[in-house]
């Protein structure tokens, strides 16, 4: 059985356009499927939990495909983990402005290739599911979760009218860059301490951000962790601290190629868990979706994985 969860509003309406193409291909092929359209933030979470529960009756496996951006995918994974999802395989048609999950796994982006991967997959890969736990809440992620400057960028991009305008011009990724530059001027680095794998303790007096990554990319193609593997049951960490703003500006373009790690002040680690304590509450994101602010965050591998269809 094929299920589709569609966020028609992803990339400012691009999701609906892409779905209409996908729908036409599926009908032409005579495929039977059930569709659910998201109507509000958090709806994909509820729909995914409902599908997991409903489709588990009878014990047959099914394919749940997401038509949306990384944010929609994040909601879907958070819905699935609330139920037994062992019978579910994930298909994906990326229609967001960042699409870092598809980039990280090397998934197709062209709609007919995505449908091909869903209907006649040549391979399937298990993908790790990470977990972010703050004092107030917890959330799972597929791409990344982070605290500090990068989370502030996500938070501001989400509510920016610039995103809609840029998406219309097919320049959605530029929104992240422009907001990153604006925020850099205002950002006040602060002291944090962190504990890696309950063992190694590190202190930074001028901290910008930490990104805990399942895949190599976040922020629409920024290669924060060039060596991250999405199925190694580990979390790759990129940390920027003890850096001046001019240096951040200089290394920013190099991060698209994963060369920022050559700069002193940028550190990468691989771990099972990372606890972060900040002197002041800092913004947190999960797959680009804002998780509010916290002064204590735990990023860890959850031990859960989900199979994803490949072309
Ligand atoms: N019907 C809807 N109307 C408005 N917002 C919605 C609707 N359905 C889902 N959403 C919200 O849209 C947000 C953005 O979705 P998503 O991340 O998939 O696309 P995007 O922001 O265009 O892409 P990206 O995250 O790659 O930049 C999510 O926070 C989701 O909760």
TrEMBL record:
Q: Which domain of life is it from?
A: Bacteria
Alphabetical keyword list: ATP-binding, Kinase, Lipid biosynthesis, Lipid metabolism, Nucleotide-binding, Phospholipid biosynthesis, Phospholipid metabolism, Transferase
> GO molecular-function annotation terms?
kinase activity
**Pfam families recorded:** DAGK_cat, YegS_C
Q: Where is the DAGKc domain?
A: 1-136
- Family according to the record: Belongs to the diacylglycerol/lipid kinase family.
What is the protein name for this chain? Diacylglycerol kinase family lipid kinase
């Amino acid at each position: 059985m094929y299920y589709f969860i569609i966020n028609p509003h992803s990339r400012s309406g691009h999701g609906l356009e892409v779905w209409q193409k996908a729908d036409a291909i599926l009908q032409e092929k005579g495929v039977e499927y059930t569709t659910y359209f998201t109507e509000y933030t958090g709806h994909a979470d509820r729909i995914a939990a409902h599908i997991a529960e409903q489709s588990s009756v009878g014990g047959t496996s099914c394919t749940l495909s997401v038509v949306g951006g990384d944010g929609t995918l994040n909601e879907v994974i958070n819905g699935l983990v609330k139920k037994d999802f062992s019978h579910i395989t994930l298909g994906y048609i990326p229609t967001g402005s960042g699409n870092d999950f598809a980039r990280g796994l090397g998934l197709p982006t062209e709609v007919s290739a995505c449908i091909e991967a869903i209907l006649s997959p040549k391979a399937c890969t298990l993908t790790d599911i990470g977990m972010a736990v703050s004092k107030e809440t917890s959330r799972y992620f597929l791409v990344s979760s982070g605290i500090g400057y990068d989370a502030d960028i996500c938070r501001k991009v989400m509510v920016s009218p610039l995103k809609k305008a840029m998406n219309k011009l097919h320049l959605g990724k530029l929104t992240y860059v422009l907001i990153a530059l604006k925020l850099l001027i205002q950002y006040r680095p602060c002291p944090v301490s962190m504990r890696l794998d309950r063992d190694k303790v590190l202190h930074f007096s001028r901290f910008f951000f930490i990104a805990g990554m399942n895949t190599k990319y976040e922020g629409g193609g920024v290669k924060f962790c060039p060596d991250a593997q999405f199925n190694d049951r580990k979390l790759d960490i990129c940390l920027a601290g003890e850096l001046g703003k001019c240096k951040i500006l200089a290394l920013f373009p190099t991060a698209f190629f994963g060369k920022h790690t050559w700069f002193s002040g940028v550190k990468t680690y691989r771990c099972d868990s990372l606890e972060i304590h900040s002197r002041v509450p800092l913004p947190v994101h999960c797959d680009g979706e804002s998780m509010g602010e916290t002064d204590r965050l735990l990023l860890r591998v959850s031990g859960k994985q989900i199979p994803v269809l490949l072309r």
